[in-house]
């Protein structure tokens, strides 16, 4: 079932980057933002869910303390993160799009859908209903270096939260990202390349899908 996102008619452009931890989103977002800035644009870079939501006790308890996970209703966590996404859209995304700016977001509702399915919640009608109030990006890329590569990248991180791996869930999440990509028309993007090569390939995709944005 496809998410019932609406097609925005605002003058700006919304680009979303989705993918596993360690998929290379950060490097691509930074590179695209710099390329736009060098051409006189003022892109807005944002993140969903926000750092505020990621630092909430409920998020930390569920994600980083699996021994306490049975005490948390996963739907409650999804409600928290969905509320945060809606506020981000209202406060950051839509105002920038109205101003004709390019908005680049690290993750979007497609990530929430893949996560929910990986946790065993495949048909949450309430979530689909809320998504009627979410604009569809003009371009969404699924950054994918391959499962093993992304896991290895995460494992090399120094901060314990950034390097946290939940192998069984991560495998399910990777599989569900592929399903969501097919259902939602996400552009699969190979990030198992040197950064400069990935960036050049990214610019080519953007030029093809959003002509004139980088010129």
UniProtKB/TrEMBL annotation:
ATP binds at residues 19-26. One of its GO terms (molecular function) is ATP binding. It catalyses: dTMP + ATP = dTDP + ADP. InterPro entries: P-loop_NTPase (IPR027417), Thymidylate_kin-like_dom (IPR039430), Thymidylate_kinase (IPR018094). Gene3D superfamilies: P-loop containing nucleotide triphosphate hydrolases. Residues 19-199 form the Thymidylate kinase-like domain. Pfam families: Thymidylate_kin. GO terms for biological process: dTDP biosynthetic process; dTTP biosynthetic process; dUDP biosynthetic process. Keywords: ATP-binding, Kinase, Nucleotide biosynthesis, Nucleotide-binding, Transferase. It is an enzyme of class 2 (transferase). Its EC number is 2.7.4.9. The keyword Nucleotide-binding applies. One of its GO terms (cellular component) is cytoplasm. The keyword Nucleotide-binding applies. SUPFAM superfamilies: P-loop containing nucleoside triphosphate hydrolases. Phosphorylation of dTMP to form dTDP in both de novo and salvage pathways of dTTP synthesis. Belongs to the thymidylate kinase family. HAMAP family: Thymidylate_kinase (MF_00165). This is Thymidylate kinase. The lineage of its organism: Bacteria, Bacillati, Actinomycetota, Actinomycetes, Streptosporangiales. The gene is tmk.
């Amino acid at each position: 079932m496809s998410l019932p996102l609406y097609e925005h008619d605002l003058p700006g452009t919304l680009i979303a980057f989705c993918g596993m931890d360690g998929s290379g989103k950060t490097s691509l977002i930074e590179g695209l933002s710099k390329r736009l800035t060098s051409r006189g644009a003022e892109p807005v870079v944002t993140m969903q869910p926000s750092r505020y939501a990621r630092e909430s006790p409920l998020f930390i308890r569920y994600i980083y303390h699996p021994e306490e996970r049975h005490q948390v209703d996963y739907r409650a966590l999804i409600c928290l993160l969905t509320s945060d996404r809606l506020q981000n859209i209202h406060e950051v995304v839509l105002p920038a799009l109205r101003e004709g700016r390019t908005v680049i977001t690290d993750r979007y509702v497609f990530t929430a859908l893949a996560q929910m399915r990986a946790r065993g919640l495949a048909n949450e009608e309430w979530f689909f209903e809320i998504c009627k109030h979410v604009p569809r990006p003009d371009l969404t890329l699924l950054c994918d270096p391959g499962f093993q590569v992304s896991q290895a990248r995460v494992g090399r991180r120094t901060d314990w939260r950034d390097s946290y791996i939940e192998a069984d869930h991560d495998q399910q999440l990777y599989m569900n990202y592929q399903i969501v990509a097919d259902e939602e028309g996400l552009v699969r993007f190979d990030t198992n390349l040197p950064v400069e090569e990935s960036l050049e390939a990214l610019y080519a995709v953007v030029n093809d899908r959003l002509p004139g944005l980088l010129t």
